Amino acid sequence: MTQWHDVGEPDDFPDQGIWPVRIAGVEVAVFRLGDELHALHDQCTHGMARLSDGYVEDGCVECPLHQGLFDIRTGEPRCAPVTQAVQCFPVRVVAGRVEVAA
C-alpha cells in the first residue's frame, strides 16, 4: 500500500535544484521545475552515484559519475551510458505541504 510522506514546503525546493530526502528507508531526490515538483530514486541505474549530487539542465538530471541523463518528469534515460529508467515517485501538495508517495 502506498503511503504519502511529508517532505517540506514548496518553497523549500529551489527552482532547478535537487533536494535529497529519506522516505521509509528509501533515498529520494526531489526536484522543482518551475511550478512542478518531481521525485526520483536518488541512485543512478548505471552506477553507484547519487542523482542529488548531479546537475539539472533542460528538464533532466545529469549523473555526477558518468554524465548520463535522466528525464526528471519520467525517470527515463536520455543519454548514454544510462539505459535503464530510474524509479519515479508521485508528488503532491496538500495544505501547503509537499508529499511524496513511497
Mind explaining what this structure looks like?
With 102 residues, the chain is an all-beta fold. It has a single domain (4-101), classed as Rieske Iron-sulfur Protein, CATH 2.102.10. It is 0% helix and 47% strand. The strands form three sheets. It has a four-stranded antiparallel β-sheet with strand order 2-3-4-9, with no helix packed on it. The protein has a four-stranded antiparallel β-sheet with strand order 5-6-7-8, with no helix packed on it. The model has no long low-confidence stretch (mean pLDDT 95).
Provide key terms for this protein.
single chain; 102 residues; mainly beta; Rieske Iron-sulfur Protein; four-stranded antiparallel beta sheet
SSE pattern, N- to C-terminal: EEEEEEEEEEE
CATH class: Mainly Beta
Principal-axes shape call: globular
Structural class assignment: mainly beta
Averaging pLDDT over every residue, what do you get?
95
Give the beta-strand count: 11
What is the total number of structural domains? 1
Which blocks of ≥5 consecutive residues have pLDDT under 50?
none
CATH superfamily: Rieske [2Fe-2S] iron-sulphur domain
Family: Belongs to the bacterial ring-hydroxylating dioxygenase ferredoxin component family.
Keywords: 2Fe-2S, Iron, Iron-sulfur, Metal-binding
Cofactor: [2Fe-2S] cluster
Protein name: Anthranilate 1,2-dioxygenase ferredoxin subunit
